[in-house]
């Protein structure tokens, strides 16, 4: 029988999703359901003088009005416990929740919110990251020192996490250099923008609450509810109906506890559904606005001798899960290059803006973009083709990374060469204003605990019960292939019970591209236990030796004697009168590769990249030099993912990632007037749509790893978004003859850069 | 959001529609393709008491190509106009402009007349109307009148129409002589309202520019004719229209627009693009008119 690994398969949830039968959180209806609305601060920074909810509480249809006075005084936060459910004494950004209302209609709830009288004393907002770091700056969190933190977090005033990455002797490295180049790059805040907005439904029964939520991370969300409401985790069941996309924006703990509080006070089920404006303003997961300063020394032959880097991340009002971004961004500053001497630091800066956190590949695209623009500038400085410059500096097997991790294998160069071949580097037959741009990068696989159960049913089908969360990528659907492969069955013979904290074992959730990588190993282990039991039972029934049996095409049979076989259904049915065919697995996570953190500070566990994957993107762009307009007709993306388990799924991830990234490259970005977002909606905040999507040439390379995911696989979900903006930036620079040092590279920014260059030449 | 409550009238005849408008001119809105009105209702930016649906009035769905003009009914969908080869053969700028109106799904529903009457200053069809010239036919209980393209657009989303009037058709003039055209817009994405755009028609008699019409849209409260730039090239020999004259036309255009800063672009950028697109419009229109320039 041929292996299922690497075969195309149709995902189990596809039909109901494309036919509109799939039910999402906002679709859930209950008898007596109330509707929740939040009252937001609508100002960047202020002291609350008074909150009066009397009028709101007396309004028709209103069943609950809650403020921080109704919630336990608990500060929560993944890395720094700096936040309360509702504003406590102060508000720190425009989307700070001051109060919540549950009423019989959304309109009544909204009217009641408007009737809550809050007296504020407005304060000057803290908005600029450089200013915020000065000792003279007022503090976003005056009590920051008293906050609890995760072990290892190093902070300062207005800095919720700073870290360093130090290797070699950076001054000695600069002394060896023939050229030293310093540049600064900046990126605007960008959003995850899943199609489905946040929605939460909460219903109490006695002292237990069931919460249906649009969470990417059901178990951490459950823990957040228990922590903030001071109730046992076992009293909270968190269920995710179909999830309509997340892109990181639904990671971490969000609004579940607010809705649970309303439902408890109202003694009725309560539903919250966000508007698009709330998605932009009130969530705490946006891609950080960043400022990235890079100084690099190179020898005349292009060899990099040293780099100094400083990254400032605008974290907004709270830390949230931002320190993932902080550390991963730090790990991107050397790129997949040999940088023998490095001194890099990163600061996660509090300001009075919407809090930042995970968005698909946190810290990736913006840092890769800056580093890769810088790389092309270095190549230009030494007179080398960008491709050749990269050839000379990319990591190879045996090299060590920025924290001393030794690369057992590196496909960085293969990705580069293959992409160059497909894209026809350096390109010819260009239309006016056309050019190619190249970018390389790397990404990691996240080792984490994760669990699954597998059982065989009497009719010969199987069921996977997993803690994993399907956010749309298909990774949970793909678990069926892994179980089927172990048991000689077909993927479509498995049903999957998932995203319900009451049934599946713990899993981190759909975050860090970890689902297949970790839960896949758990499912294989669970299916392996079933396989052992199945073979034992079949051997007994067939009166054969276990070691002579094989599992093929839904049957257990004696190897070489196809006639001596039993359908798995018969064995499963027979097992119901003896020992059941069930298994469990937790796919013990591999540990990080050996590395050396001497001289480094503030690190939190992402200090080496397990099972690193490499990629190269080449973009073809067209720049109208007179208007600055950039279009992207074609992107070539070559990724090495260890082992391709599901080619259709992996290709979809790369195509989607590349297209999503074009938005970040040329369109997206929040604009601010002081502390208020100017474009919190899809009319003002432009996402790329099908009409502007390029042709995407995808090639997937394999280089299976021993200590990785199932069958040697590496993480797939996030790497595709890391390199595209960088490649586009380099193509724009090549086409326009000038470089745009801000993301997004809008037409006006390109035009301004051209204009400034004209000024310099004149 | 959903629209506030309104009374819906599915009209069968123009008289029926006009009757409702006349009974409550300020509280009524005409619904054709609904591609602008429905979002405005859903966002609760408008709250009419009466919605006068003219989609079932059969006499409004037509394209009539005459020797000197093209008449398009108020019920005619943009996609029908876009795909009309007969219209294309006499006014090729229309197809090009329509291809930038939203996306095909929007054009399957939206109407040319509806877009003109909505009078969004950054929209394509009002600018086409102003450039090619022509008139709209407006009906009210008091009778019928025509309004010329030069008199139609008054301000942001505001036209010369009275609240009790309904437009039943638009006529686009067909230019005489050898005429070249140009359309271009700078937009954040395909299908978005333009940051700035240009529509132009330039006609030649012999080697001399006999008529020039250049309209910038997205550069003020209405689509704007670039009259100073038009005058500069009108009467000039096509072969003389080069660097210097083009540069002067561009400067005139940059000075003639009244753009504002918004989240998509600054006023400065828009002024620059107005000049640039004017220059391109003249150059390409002359090429298309068959001149050696």
TrEMBL record, chain A:
Residues 19-124 form the Aldehyde oxidase/xanthine dehydrogenase a/b hammerhead domain. Pfam families: Ald_Xan_dh_C, MoCoBD_1, MoCoBD_2. It comes from Streptomyces carpinensis. InterPro entries: Ald_Oxase/Xan_DH_a/b, Ald_Oxase/Xan_DH_a/b_sf, Ald_Oxase/xanthine_DH-like, AldOxase/xan_DH_MoCoBD1, AldOxase/xan_DH_MoCoBD2, AldOxase/xan_DH_Mopterin-bd_sf. This is Xanthine dehydrogenase family protein molybdopterin-binding subunit. Transmembrane segments: none annotated.
UniProtKB/TrEMBL annotation, chain B:
The keyword Flavoprotein applies. It comes from the Bacteria. It holds the Pfam family CO_deh_flav_C. Residues 1-177 form the FAD-binding PCMH-type domain. Keywords: FAD, Flavoprotein, Oxidoreductase. PANTHER family: XANTHINE DEHYDROGENASE SUBUNIT C-RELATED. This is Xanthine dehydrogenase family protein subunit M.
């Amino acid at each position: 029988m041929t292996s299922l690994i690497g075969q195309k398969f149709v995902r189990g949830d596809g039909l109901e999703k494309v036919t509109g039968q799939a039910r999402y959180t906002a679709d859930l209806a209950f008898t007596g359901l109330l509707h929740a609305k939040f009252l937001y601060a609508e100002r960047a920074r202020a002291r609350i003088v008074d909150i009066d909810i009397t009028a709101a509480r007396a309004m028709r249809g209103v069943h609950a009005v809650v403020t921080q006075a109704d919630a336990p005084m608990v500060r929560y936060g993944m890395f720094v416990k700096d936040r309360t459910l509702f504003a406590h004494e102060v508000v720190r950004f425009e989307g700070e929740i001051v109060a919540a209302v549950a009423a019989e209609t959304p309109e009544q709830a909204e009217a009641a919110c408007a009737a809550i009288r809050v007296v504020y004393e407005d304060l000057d907002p803290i908005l600029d990251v450089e200013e915020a770091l000065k000792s003279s700056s007022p503090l976003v969190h005056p009590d920051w020192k008293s906050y609890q933190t995760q072990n290892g977090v190093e902070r300062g005033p207005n800095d919720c996490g700073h870290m360093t990455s130090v290797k070699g002797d950076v001054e000695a490295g600069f002394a060896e250099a023939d050229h030293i180049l310093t540049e600064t790059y900046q990126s605007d805040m960008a959003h995850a923008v899943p199609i489905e907005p946040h929605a939460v439904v909460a219903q109490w029964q006695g002292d237990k609450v069931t919460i249906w939520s649009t969470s990417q991370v059901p178990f951490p969300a459950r823990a957040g509810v228990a922590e903030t409401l001071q109730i046992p985790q076992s009293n909270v069941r968190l269920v995710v109906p179909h999830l309509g996309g997340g892109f990181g924006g639904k990671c971490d703990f969000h609004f579940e506890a607010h809705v649970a509080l309303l439902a408890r006070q109202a003694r009725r089920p309560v539903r919250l559904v966000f508007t698009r404006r709330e998605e932009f303003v009130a969530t705490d997961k946006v891609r950080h606005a960043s400022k990235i300063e890079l100084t690099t020394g190179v020898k005349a032959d292009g060899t990099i001798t040293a780099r100094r880097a400083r990254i400032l991340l605008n974290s907004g009002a709270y830390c949230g899960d931002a320190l993932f971004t902080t550390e991963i961004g730090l790990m991107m500053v050397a790129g997949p290059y040999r940088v023998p001497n490095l001194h890099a630091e990163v600061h996660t800066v509090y300001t009075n803006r919407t809090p930042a956190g995970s968005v698909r590949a946190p810290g990736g695209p913006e840092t890769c973009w800056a580093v890769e623009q810088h790389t092309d500038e270095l190549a230009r400085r030494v007179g080398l083709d960008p491709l050749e410059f990269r050839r000379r500096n990319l990591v190879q097997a045996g090299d060590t990374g920025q924290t001393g991790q030794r690369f057992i294998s590196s496909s960085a160069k293969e990705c580069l060469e293959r992409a160059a071949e497909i894209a026809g580097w350096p390109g010819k037959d260009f239309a006016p204003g056309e050019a190619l741009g190249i970018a390389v990068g790397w990404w990691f696989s996240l080792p984490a605990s994760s669990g699954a159960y597998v059982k065989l049913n009497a009719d010969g089908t199987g069921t996977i019960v997993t803690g994993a969360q399907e956010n749309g990528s298909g990774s949970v659907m793909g678990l069926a292939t892994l179980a089927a492969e172990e048991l000689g069955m077909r993927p479509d013979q498995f049903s999957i019970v998932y995203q319900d904290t009451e049934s599946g074992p713990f899993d981190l959730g759909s975050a860090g591209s970890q689902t297949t990588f970790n839960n896949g190993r758990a499912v294989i282990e669970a299916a392996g236990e079933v396989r052992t039991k199945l073979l034992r039972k079949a051997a007994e029934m067939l009166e054969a030796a276990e070691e002579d049996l094989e599992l093929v095409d839904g049957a257990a049979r004696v190897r070489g004697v196809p006639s001596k076989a039993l359908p798995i259904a018969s064995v499963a049915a027979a097992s119901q009168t003896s020992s059941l065919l069930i298994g469990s697995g937790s796919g013990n996570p591999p540990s990080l590769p050996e590395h050396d953190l001497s001289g480094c500070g503030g690190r939190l566990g992402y200090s080496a990249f397990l099972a690193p994957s490499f990629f190269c993107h080449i973009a073809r762009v067209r720049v109208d030099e007179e208007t600055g307009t950039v279009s992207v007709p074609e992107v070539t993306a070559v990724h090495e993912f260890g082992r391709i388990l599901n080619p259709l799924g992996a290709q979809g991830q790369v195509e989607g990632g590349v297209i999503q990234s074009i938005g970040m490259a040329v369109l997206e970005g929040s604009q601010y007037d002081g502390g208020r977002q100017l474009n919190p909606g899809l009319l003002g905040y432009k996402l790329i749509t099908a009409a502007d999507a390029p042709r995407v040439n995808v090639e997937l390379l394999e280089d299976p790893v021993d200590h990785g995911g199932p069958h040697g696989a590496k993480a797939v979900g996030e790497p595709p978004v890391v390199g595209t903006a960088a490649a586009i930036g380099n193509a724009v620079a090549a086409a326009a003859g000038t470089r745009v040092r801000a993301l997004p590279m809008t037409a006006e920014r390109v035009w301004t850069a051209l204009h400034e260059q004209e000024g310099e030449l004149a | 959001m959903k629209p506030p409550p309104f009374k819906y009238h599915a009209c069968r005849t123009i008289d029926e529609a006009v009757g409702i408008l006349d009974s409550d001119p300020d509280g009524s809105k005409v619904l054709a393709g609904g591609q602008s009105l429905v979002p405005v209702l859903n966002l609760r930016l408008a709250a009419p008491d009466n919605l006068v649906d003219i989609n079932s009035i059969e006499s409004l769905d037509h394209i009539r190509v005459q020797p000197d003009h093209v008449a398009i009914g108020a019920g005619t969908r943009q996609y029908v106009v876009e795909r009309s080869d007969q219209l294309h053969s006499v006014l090729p700028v229309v197809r090009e402009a329509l291809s930038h109106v939203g996306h095909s799904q929007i054009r399957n529903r939206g109407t040319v007349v509806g877009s003109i009457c909505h009078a969004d200053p950054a929209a394509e069809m009002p600018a086409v109307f102003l450039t090619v010239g022509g008139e709209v036919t407006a009906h009210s209980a008091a009778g019928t009148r025509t309004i010329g393209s030069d008199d139609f657009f008054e301000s942001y989303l505001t036209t010369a129409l009275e609240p009790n009037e309904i437009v039943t058709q638009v006529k686009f003039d067909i230019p005489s002589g050898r005429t070249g055209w140009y359309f271009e817009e700078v937009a954040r994405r395909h299908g978005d309202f333009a940051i700035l755009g240009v529509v132009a028609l330039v006609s030649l008699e012999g080697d001399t520019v006999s008529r020039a019409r250049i309209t910038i849209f997205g550069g003020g409260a209405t689509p704007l004719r670039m009259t100073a730039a038009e005058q500069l090239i009108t009467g000039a020999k096509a072969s003389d229209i080069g660097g210097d004259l083009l540069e002067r036309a561009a400067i005139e255009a940059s000075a003639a627009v009244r753009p504002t800063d918004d989240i998509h672009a600054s006023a400065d950028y828009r002024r620059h693009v107005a000049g640039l697109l004017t220059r391109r419009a003249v150059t390409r229109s002359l090429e298309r008119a068959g001149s050696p320039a």
